[in-house]
Structure to design on (486 residues):
């Protein structure tokens, strides 16, 4: 008996943060989306991230979910990276000038509910094991929880958001070159006899670092690394190792009473050369991984999703050309490379030993903490606020840059973007002919520039001398030409 084939516009593989945001965006835009996840429903993704940065909060704001995510976390205005180095986003020009501490599963909860409400078809206990593509679409074969052949999906596009051990990546012939950068990292959930006076504490010493974060229900998450205990991933993690890690960094083990879960893992620095192969895309950890330093992994994956979703919508729903999808590779591979470099620099500086290297580390620390212009630059890059895409030669200076959440005559930019909309901003009083999925707004002041903001909050195009023809061509390239019916 041949297996059932389920047709869908897009098959997203992996219900981690990247897949959830992407699937939610696509479904909100009216596309049919299946989200295949090998885990059973409600069984946690091994939740790791604790930090959400400002740029992702801006992306969430443009979807109406930032307030909820912020309310569930702890905003702090400084994040200790190592020794003298602190990330200080408090001077950044954003609505969210802080680092938000919140467990990854809290972020996933909000994203999952949004995706469900938007109509994403969740297929849990469905592991994608084979991917084939032809000129018209992609076919994915799956296995169920018992390893038996499961549903077959046929989609116009497939996105592998299936994490570091992606099945999609090898299925499209992509290697994952790079190295292991930190081994024998410790991750554990503990109960404490005497809790710290803050929801999280963090410290780094010459022999390692530790982070202790409140997770709710009396649990604390320990994350850390101890140079003195370097063992293979499968070596049992002893309770004493966890205690020693805490004592080494905080002078106390907080009287650990119980360790319901513990694990040892390693951290790699790797990036797939191609994020797009035909009709298949890679996003999130499936495309890039790096050390937890700087807390950028989930944040980068979420921005991959925000970059790709509107492009798929523009092509599938609004008639934009296929070449638009190539900009995903051009833009996000470059950002991934930059993030690998930033995170690698931080982790290497944090782990250096010896006098000369300690000196270097202090200098690196000063760069991220003491010298204001450089510290602000570092904060803007790590939080994603300062990241821009390469603009074509001769383009207006705004092209490719992040569009800040300015107040326009019709309201805040991020609010106008909701529903995955482009926003065309023109000088006050000026008319423009735009399709239904583009919002036309006006600068609140006397600014003369005309600019098109993409749904992911970057300027697609801008000009100080607008003409109807270049505006029409820009809208056709970036936003497609069809007007959505709903
Ligand atoms: C200790 C630690 C701390 C971290 N802290 C931070 C932080 O503070 N901030 C930050 O931004 N990042 C942080 N990260 C990184 C962050 O956890 C990851 O970048 C993030 O989880 C990646 O999300 P993702 O959706 O791309 O992949 P994942 O979260 O790995 O999700 C992939 C999903 O795909 C599913 N899957 C896999 N294969 C298949 C298949 N074949 N078929 C169907 N489903 C499949 C998996 O079950 C999983 O649910 C940290 C990482 C570590 C290790």
């Amino acid at each position: 008996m041949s297996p059932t084939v389920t047709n869908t516009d897009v098959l997203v593989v992996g219900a981690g943060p990247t897949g959830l945001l992407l699937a939610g965006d696509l479904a909100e835009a009216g596309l049919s989306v299946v989200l295949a996840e090998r885990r059973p429903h409600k069984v946690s993704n091994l939740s790791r991230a604790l930090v959400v940065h400002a740029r992702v909060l801006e992306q969430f704001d443009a979807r109406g979910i930032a307030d909820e995510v912020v309310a569930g976390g702890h905003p702090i205005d400084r994040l200790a990276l190592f020794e003298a180095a602190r990330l200080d986003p408090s001077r950044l020009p954003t609505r969210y000038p802080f680092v938000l501490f919140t467990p990854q599963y809290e972020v996933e909860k909000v994203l999952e509910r949004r995706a469900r409400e938007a109509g994403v078809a969740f297929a849990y206990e469905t592991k994608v094991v084979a991917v084939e593509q032809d000129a018209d679409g992609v076919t994915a074969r799956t296995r169920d929880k018992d390893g038996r052949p499961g549903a077959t999906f046929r989609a116009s596009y497939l996105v592998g958001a299936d994490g570091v051990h992606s099945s999609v990546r090898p299925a499209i012939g992509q290697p994952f070159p790079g190295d292991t950068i930190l081994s024998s990292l410790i991750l554990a959930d503990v109960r404490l006899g005497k809790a710290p006076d803050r929801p999280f504490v963090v410290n780094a010493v010459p022999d390692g670092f530790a982070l202790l974060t409140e997770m709710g229900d009396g649990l604390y998450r320990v994350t850390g690394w101890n140079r003195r205990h370097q063992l293979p991933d499968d070596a049992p993690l002893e309770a004493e190792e966890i205690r020693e890690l805490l004592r080494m960094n905080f002078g106390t083990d907080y009287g650990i009473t119980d360790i319901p879960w513990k694990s040892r893992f390693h951290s790699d620095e790797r990036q797939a050369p191609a994020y797009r192969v035909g009709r298949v895309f890679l996003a999130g950890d499936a495309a890039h991984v790096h050390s937890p330093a700087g807390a950028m992994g989930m944040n980068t994956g979420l921005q991959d999703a925000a970059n790709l979703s509107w492009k798929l919508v523009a092509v599938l729903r609004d008639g934009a050309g296929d070449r638009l999808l190539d900009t995903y590779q051009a833009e996000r591979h470059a950002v991934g490379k930059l993030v690998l470099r930033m995170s690698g620099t931080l982790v290497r500086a944090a782990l250096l030993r010896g006098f000369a290297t300690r000196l270097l580390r202090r200098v690196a620390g000063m760069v991220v903490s003491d010298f204001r212009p450089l510290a602000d630059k570092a904060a803007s890059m790590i939080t994603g606020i300062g990241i821009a895409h390469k603009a074509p030669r001769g383009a207006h200076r705004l092209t490719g840059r992040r569009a800040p959440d300015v107040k326009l005559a019709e309201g805040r930019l991020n609010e106008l973007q909701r529903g995955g909309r482009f926003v065309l901003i023109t000088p006050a009083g000026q008319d423009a002919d735009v399709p239904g999925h583009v919002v036309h707004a006006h600068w609140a002041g006397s600014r003369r520039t005309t600019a098109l903001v993409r749904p992911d909050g970057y300027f697609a195009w801008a000009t100080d001398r607008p003409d109807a023809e270049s505006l029409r061509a820009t809208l056709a390239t970036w936003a497609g030409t069809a007007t959505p019916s709903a």
